Amino acid sequence: MLRIKTVKLMLLLAVSFGLPALTVAQQPITLKDALKYALDNNVKVRKARLDIEGGKYKVQEVRAQALPQITGTAGLTYNPIIGQLVANFGGQTQAIKMGQNWNSSAGVQLSQQLFNQTVFTGLQAARSSEEFYNLTAQLTEEQIIELVANTYYQVLVNKQQLGVVETNIKNVKVVEKVTASQFENGLAKKIDVDRIKVKLTNLESKRIQTINAITQQENQLKFAMGMSVANPITLPNSELTEVRQLPVFTDTVGLANRTEIKLLNNQDKLYALQRKAYLAEYYPSLSLTGNYTYSSQSDSFDFLNSNRAAIGFGASAVGLSLKIPIFNGFLTRSKVRQANVDIDKLKQDRIEKTNELNLAYENAKIELKNSLSTINYQRKNAELAQEIYQSTQNNYNNGLATLTDLLETEDSLTEAQNSYTEALLKYKIAEIQLIKAKGDLRTLVQ
């Protein structure tokens, strides 16, 4: 009995904790919600942020070269046969044994760079590399924002097109009932009934295709967001609203806020530092060195005994090491010239990127103007097509219009409604491109 109550309690807890999560999952996801989720869960964004973390460690790696380097050493040697020194002492030749059977040593070595222009330049480059990873992560986030927004609106368009198809199915079913009734009363031909059935079958097929397209687009959206494709999502229809007027345009767009330009500026700095690092190979380097070693010798392995017979002695040295490059076969000169080529190529990249960004801004303005014009025309066209269809349907019901006229006006209505929806999509995509051209994509998340 107690076990049954425990199971019931666990089920109640599971339901009570599970319901809020299910409710949240079924809430419509706005564009802002989708973008925030993508910035937190998209794999590319996460990897870019890991690159930032890795960049910090690279800075520490380069900085370590400017810090003192301390190394400990230890060694143990056994000499089965000890070498001898033969010398003449007072006219008598004698052989002197050199060393003992067992030798041990332990020591510590220290080195510190006092002047090394290559290392100091590397520290500056490491800091610029950290900035590079930050800008790359920012560019990745902007690309994901653009991708998610475009896919989001594509899903909404497909849903609106599904609504058009379902409305057409309802209208054709009404016509089917009227035509079937007329056929029973001898006022319509069987071919008319068959034509409507064919029309209805085509619409049902179109409906299934549209549903599948929506599912594919939703899966693509979830993938871009970093969400499991198994999770159900719902999008509000209010996100794809009517457009009445254009945003305010400027003659030119400032490119200083574009992440692409900031990346080029950072690369320019890195190339300059790389060239400086190559030039630093012409400079001499100065380092401080020091070491201390304690050695012990014995004719037996008694280093661990308290009353050992080993003889021990210490030695130490402190010095400066100066390295002056004289000639390396013009290796450094070749590196510097390669760096100059990279800098010149980057200048051309900047020119091309500037033209590309200006072109994207101008094209976005033109596309917005064209889309708004198309929206206005297609809105009026859809309203007129709706009036014509209703009038033709009334005439058909009263025997004043043929079935062909009705089906043709129904096709015209569908085409006009879909054209209006597609015009809205083109406007939204062009709007995203305009926001991107201004460097304000992150405002979509705010």
C-alpha Rg, in Å? 40 Å
Question: What order do the helices and strands follow?
Answer: HHHEEEEHHHEEHH
Given as residue ranges, the uncertain stretches (5+ residues, pLDDT < 50) are: 1-25
- Helix % is 55-70%
Question: Termini distance?
Answer: 55 Å
> What is the number of beta strands?
6
Describe the global form.
elongated
Reading side by side through the largest sheet, how are the strands ordered?
1-4-5-6
The residue-averaged pLDDT reads 86
| Beta-strand content estimate | 5-15%
Total count of helical runs of at least 4 residues? 8
Largest sheet: number of strands, sense, barrel closure: 4 strands, antiparallel
* Sheet/helix structural class: alpha+beta
Notes on the protein architecture:
The chain has 446 residues and is an alpha+beta fold. It contains eight helices and six strands; from the N terminus they run H-H-H-E-E-E-E-H-H-H-E-E-H-H. The strands form two sheets. It has a four-stranded antiparallel beta sheet with strand order 1-4-5-6, with no helix packed on it. It has a two-stranded antiparallel ribbon with strand order 2-3. Helix 4 packs antiparallel against helix 6 and helix 4 runs antiparallel to helix 8. The longest helix has 68 residues. It is elongated. The two termini are 55 Å apart. The N terminus is likely disordered.
Quick overview of this protein structure:
With 446 residues, this protein is α+β, with helices and mostly antiparallel strands. The chain has helices at 2-26, 31-41, 43-64, 117-184, 190-225, 259-279, 331-397, 403-437, and strands at residues 69-78, 84-89, 92-97, 102-115, 285-298, 311-323. The protein has a 4-stranded antiparallel β-sheet, with no helix packed on it. Strands 2-3 form a two-stranded antiparallel sheet.
